[in-house]
Amino acid sequence: MIYWLGAIGSTLFVLVFLADGWTRPGYSPVRHPVSALALGPRGWIQTSNFLVCGAAITIGALGVTFAGQSYLLGPMLAVFGLGLVASGVFPMDPMRGYPPGTPDGDPAAHTSRHKLHDYAGMVVFLALPAAAAIGAFVMPGVTWKSISAFMAIGLMIGFGTFGTAWENDSPKVGLFQRAVIIPGWFWVTAVFLDFAYR
């Protein structure tokens, strides 16, 4: 059951931000990052998404840890989950046209809350490729090892691309982020399901 919590949390996170992003007035999934969904009148949806799904992933990661087959993969997945929780506790600042009415650009100075959100994001975006890299060594079979290695490399490149797009205020920053989050989170789902069916 504990692995299913992790799998559901990882999958639900993606489904919620996709549905909310496509139906949110004034929000552009192509331009705006997922974290911006935690702002505005409907911000509680994404905040809850961060908190609930991050906690579910963390609990699932404890199951992986106590399975005794890897003393690195489970803790790294737990760090990933806790980073998501922290992202919900410390939302980003309004900027770049969202929520509607916000100036189209960055504020002159960021709040401490936003800085903590950035740190939480760094944890998430570093822990996930690290977990995939560990998976390349500890997951069973050539297929799993190959997929995990490919995912680790792809996530590092993808998150780097997203970071550059964010710094340059690319009009497609949301699209770049989603192109990395979706396969990365589904890799996490697949890992939990693999443990569930062993």
From TrEMBL:
Give TM segment ranges.
Answer: 43-64, 71-90, 119-139, 146-166, 178-197
List UniProt keywords, sorted A-Z: Membrane, Transmembrane, Transmembrane helix
Domain of life where this protein originates: Bacteria
For this entry, the protein name equals: DUF998 domain-containing protein
Q: What is the lineage of its organism?
A: Bacteria, Bacillati, Actinomycetota, Actinomycetes, Jiangellales
